Amino acid sequence: MSALSVEQWAQKVKENDRKAAAKLISAIERKEKIARDILKQLFVPVGKTTVLGVTGSAGAGKSCLVSCLISAFRKRGKTVAVIAVDPSSPFTGGAFLGDRLRMQVHGRDKGVYIRSMASRGYLGGLARGTVDAMRVMEAMGHDIVIVETVGTGQDEIDVARLVQTCILVLTPTMGDDIQAMKAGIMEVAQIAILNKADMPGKEKAILDLEVALRMRPTAADGWSVPVVPTVATTEEGIDEVVGHIENHQAHIRQGDGMKKFAFQKAEKEGSVLIKDEIERVIFDHIRGTGLRRKYLEKIVAGEIDPYTAVEEVMSLFIKKSAKGV
Amino acid sequence: MVKRKIRIMIAKPGLDGHDRGARVLARCFRDAGFEVIYTGCHQTPEQIAAAAIQEDVDVVGLSCLSGAHRYLFPAVKKILDEKDADDITVIGGGIIPEQDFQVLYDAGIKALFTPGATLEGYRGLGPREHRGKDMKGSMHFFK
């Protein structure tokens, strides 16, 4: 693949060449320069792709639900791409990516493309490079792109800024109505699913959710969040979920909804890219100088506090770059 | 650029539901710093090959305890080659009699791990305990 020019590689991705796309996503994960050059060519400000996010706690049934959604969309003649994120080990950097296991019935379907990504230390429920991988899948021409986050707790809400319709998956064991009142993840979804609705506690959980979601102040956009009970293992409730997705898509495609979404996504993406770039430039700058180690030891020895240390490193960096070193 | 992570897919082709070994390996590779994609039991060679290409893995590890390895392992390798994915290394493990080693090696399987193999051997992918004589040092991919 590396023998290809930027233009040729981009062209192959646009022609839905699955291998070219897979290699590009790997290059994105490795932060290779060519990946960024290709991404520049794949950029489309407001595409026609439907971009969905599926989030919720570990074991809530996200992967199973995604698999059901793939089946439902395929029945409607749509092509689907999925990015499934699972956590990396903070100790070894290794990862066990098991989401695909739940979706393997679609393994041979040429209208389905699934990619597992390890979070590689990136917080917010996504992996570094998830946004770029979404762009690759859009460029391949899929009708629908689904991003499945790592199992999230309460605060991993990045996905909501990057997808058009965000689906929150909960279960009857999610906790009481106090949990439903907490800020963060409860606020970001456009559709709430109560999966494993064949378990006891279903009615109470639905009531708690409906009450919490009805009071949502963000409803200024005119959308009220439906709560849908499902049993992913038997595909119960899936058609209803798809109906709500279609409704929400129609809702945001009225007026300037898509433009607003594009703005919000660009804002989020821009801030991530800038942070990444600043971090890269600064660490590139001090790599091999021993400065990092020196400051860490000073902090541990109590000779300097971390705030002053960072100020000193930054002012060194600014002075040096002003001189054009 | 960041350090290259090795991506490995552990898959069980065919009608064999004994996945304890495959899961132990998946865990062992994870702890060795690999990104492991586990696709579960009862996979067809076509499913495995399609998933390996979409996931851009470096290695596919096939586990088979049912005796069908002579058909299933080469089938996966053949489909990968046909799909222009011959850069993916295919290795295998399970209950594999010694007389089958040559057939699998000729089909392009790069290493075999049979009962008695150690987790250390897997981690280094320079199997100390493996029995395939000609396969020693064939993991040049990881250098």
Search tags:
heterodimer; A: 325 residues; alpha/beta; Rossmann fold; 3 domains; 7-stranded parallel β-sheet; 8 strands; globular; B: 143 residues; 5-stranded parallel β-sheet; disordered C terminus
Describe what you observe in this structure:
The complex is a heterodimer of chains A (325) and B (143). Chain A has 325 residues and is an alpha/beta fold. Chain A has 3 domains: 1-43, no CATH class; 44-255, P-loop containing nucleotide triphosphate hydrolases (Rossmann fold, 3-Layer(aba) Sandwich), CATH 3.40.50.300; 267-322, no CATH class. Chain A contains 13 helices and 8 strands. In chain A, helix 2 (18-29) crosses helix 3 (33-42). Chain B has one domain (7-142): Rossmann fold. Chain B has 5 helices and 5 strands. In chain B, strand 4, helix 4 (101-106) and strand 5 (112-113) form a beta-alpha-beta unit. In chain B, helix 2 (45-54) crosses helix 3 (69-82). Chain B is globular and about 40 Å long. Chain B starts with 6 loop residues before the first strand and ends in a 19-residue tail after the last helix. The chains are: A alpha/beta (325), B alpha/beta (143). The A-B interface holds A 18-19, 22-23, 25-26, 29-33, 88-89, 92-98, 100-101, 104, 107-108, 113-116, 118, 120 and B 1-2, 4-5, 7, 26-27, 29-40, 43-44, 46-48, 50-51, 53-56, 83-85. Strand 3 (95-97) of chain A pairs parallel with strand 2 of chain B.
